[in-house]
Amino acid sequence: MSDVKAIIGLGNPGADYDATRHNAGAWVVEALARDSLTPLRAERKFLGQYAKVRYAGHDVHLLVPSTYMNRSGKAVAALCQFFKLTPEELLIAHDELDIAPGTARYKHGGGHGGHNGLRDTASALGNDKSFHRLRIGVGHPGSAKQVVNYVLGRPGKAERIAIDAAIDECLRTLPDVLDGNWAGAMNRLHSFNA
């Protein structure tokens, strides 16, 4: 399994979307940039906010696409082409309806599960779905008809505290991920519940 060289946080650009559930993936990368004391900066060639950080002894590219969620692939593909990255070297952080707030899960490959950011990313990578995912639980509204309004809505205070606690735990597991110790990272993260 290839080492992770880039962590990409999916979301929608702009102040209207910044605090919405759909931006939970972006929150991971923003937290990692803060933790690394390296600000994300607008980078036109990657269509997003970018930084290169040193984290747990590894050089890692961070990207939050400034494209809308359903066009995330353009930014991911631009980063991959520039740095000659393979899909297996990517960790894509995204919001996940199927797990509760306060929990997060790693996953290797697989389908998009109806997530437009993952769908577009896989498509932009030539339908190669072998990238790693970091699924940040935001919970489900209970009805498929409510999903769009739900992910574009803001979590309540307690919910946001739980999501942030899960993101903090994600950061604690990243040294294992970057060292290639997926079993250790998964064991720790998957047993965490805020």
UniProtKB/TrEMBL annotation:
Site residues by UniProt (Stabilizes the basic form of H active site to accept a proton): 95
Subcellular localization(s) per the UniProt record: Cytoplasm
4Fe-4S in keyword set: no
Enzyme superclass (EC): hydrolase
GO BP: protein quality control for misfolded or incompletely synthesized proteins; rescue of stalled ribosome
Active site: 22
InterPro entries linked to this entry: Pept_tRNA_hydro, Pept_tRNA_hydro_CS, Pept_tRNA_hydro_sf
EC number, as in UniProt: 3.1.1.29
Stored CDD domains: PTH (cd00462)
PROSITE patterns (UniProt xref): PEPT_TRNA_HYDROL_1, PEPT_TRNA_HYDROL_2
GO MF annotation, one: peptidyl-tRNA hydrolase activity
Site for Discriminates between blocked and unblocked aminoacyl-tRNA, residues: 12
Family as reported in the entry's similarity comment: Belongs to the PTH family.
Record function comment: Hydrolyzes ribosome-free peptidyl-tRNAs (with 1 or more amino acids incorporated), which drop off the ribosome during protein synthesis, or as a result of ribosome stalling.
Protein name: Peptidyl-tRNA hydrolase
